[in-house]
Amino acid sequence: MLDIASNRPALPPEIARRRTFAIISHPDAGKTTLTEKFLLFGGAIQMAGQVRAKGEARRTRSDFMQMEKDRGISVSASAMSFDYKTFRFNLVDTPGHSDFSEDTYRTLTAVDAAVMVIDGAKGVESQTQKLFEVCRLRDLPILTFCNKMDRESRDTFEIIDEIQEMLAIDVTPASWPIGQGRDFIGCYDILRDRLELMDRADRNKVAESIEINGLDDPKLAQHVPAHLLEQLHEELEMARALLPELDPQAVLEGHMTPIWFGSAINSFGVKELMDGIGSYGPEPQIQSAEPRKISPEETKVSGFVFKVQANMDPKHRDRVAFVRMASGHFKRGMKLTHVRTKKPMAVSNPVLFLASDRELADEAWAGDIIGIPNHGQLRIGDTLTEGEALRVTGIPSFAPELLQGVRAGDPMKAKHLEKALMQFAEEGAAKVFKPMIGSGFIVGVVGALQFEVLASRIELEYGLPVRFDGSQFTSARWVAGDKAALDKFINANKQHIAHDHDGDTVYLTRLQWDIDRVIRDYPELKLTATKEMM
Ligand code: GDP
Description:
GO terms for molecular function: GTP binding; GTPase activity; guanosine tetraphosphate binding; translation release factor activity, codon nonspecific; translation release factor activity, codon specific. InterPro entries: EF-G-like_DII, EFG_III/V, G_TR_CS, P-loop_NTPase, PrfC, RF3_C, RF3_dom_3_sf, Small_GTP-bd. Belongs to the TRAFAC class translation factor GTPase superfamily. Classic translation factor GTPase family. PrfC subfamily. Residues 16-285 form the Tr-type G domain. One of its GO terms (cellular component) is cytosol. The protein is an alpha+beta fold. It folds into three domains: 21-81 and 93-280, Rossmann fold (3-Layer(aba) Sandwich); 289-392, P-loop containing nucleotide triphosphate hydrolases (Rossmann fold, 3-Layer(aba) Sandwich), CATH 3.40.50.300; 399-532, Peptide chain release factor 3, domain III (Alpha-Beta Plaits, 2-Layer Sandwich), CATH 3.30.70.3280. 27% of the residues lie in helices and 29% in strands. The strands form seven sheets. It has an eight-stranded antiparallel β-sheet. An eight-stranded antiparallel β-sheet has the order 28-25-27-26-30-31-29-32, covered by helices on one side. A seven-stranded mixed β-sheet has the order 2-3-1-4-5-11-6, with helices on both faces. Helix 12 (414-427) crosses helix 13. It starts with 12 loop residues before the first helix and ends with a strand. Guanosine-5'-diphosphate binds at residues 25, 27-33, 147-148, 150-151, 263-266. Guanosine-5'-diphosphate (GDP) is lined by residues 25, 27-33, 147-148, 150-151, 263-266.
């Protein structure tokens, strides 16, 4: 048996069995394929390639699902829940586009661990590295899956070295590949002393697993050709000498990653990885909040919004807020307090994203993700509690790196445009600044592609053709401080001042020199490139 890395022995079993994680990878490494196999082994789908909800009859009983069906949108892919052995897995999807986005960062605030998928032939690629750095900011535990071992791949030590060097994290092998490319026959399961043999003929079949009594067991020779066995012996001996042993605590703290080798498309190594998520997952963790932290085992329910998804239908304005439960046992119909507005909110139609049979959530535990349909009251960063004024922290908003002015093609539609822009600002899709002087808005994004996406969404959802033009500004900083100092600063710099959708003051400029000057001349003010969402 593997020992479970638990730093929270007091957790009720329903919470302790939850594993909430995301997959990070470079495009093409195999994230989609791996997700499908997770669902397959989680019993959520019958055949890989069929990620589809069953039970039409049950589905129609929910208005929400009807709405989803009518509009042909899918929010279900954003979070998927399924059972595996004694565990409940909640897999939260990270957005697919390659521009680093706040969306991705915020998704990673809702999980307790990440599975990093790398391509065995390509190693650590750029997007993997960026996403890894985001995980590191939160010391998230990372489990690594080295995929596509059925094809020509790099030398095992080389792959491990690259991860250690490029990502500065200790790597410990959980399994060891036997053979390479076309000669790849399977893996030696280091954690459990088993031989796992890949079946190339049937891609959905689980690998044959043979218990081995240590590396000297004669059984090995019955299954592994002599030259590969010799190589395995040599490599494992070297690995023992050179690589650290698995230390669950170091994994939990994000200093060490166990690596499994496999082939998602051949369903190989996937179960071992899933067992690993169960063992080292970890269970729902403590959430940082003000004025105190939130422990999952607290009996009172709390949760926070990490994502808002608006609909693609111009006739409706409903949104779904994705809430990560931080504590307690939530039951449908519960009245929660929306801490930002101090208003009660009856959560009567929450949605749980059960991959097998997506439906209304009757209950959810700390660690789960639920969707709450709403009309815009719920914003990213909002906290829901049973009354206590807690505010979950650590969900930042980044200063945009690209700024452009925007105006409606038809000047009479300025009000409409403002409404559309505010919606996207609340969704976290863009920063919207209203300059003190002049008309129009300045929109800020992190990746250039987002301007195009925004323009097409405004046209599609609001029927407004818009034009983005270059802006005289290139940088934005939030400014905070006591009122007198802030007023004085604003009065002296009106040409550079704007307000964001929350009404907070923003300083716009094109010169780093300006920013340095403000910092020097107004020591009582704080200029920041990030702002906590609230
Ligand atoms: P994503 O972009 O990370 O979601 O990657 P996909 O899951 O879409 O996979 C990208 C490509 O790699 C697809 O053509 C897959 O069929 C292929 N692929 C995924 N896993 C494996 C594997 O284990 N071996 C091989 N040879 N190909 C794979």
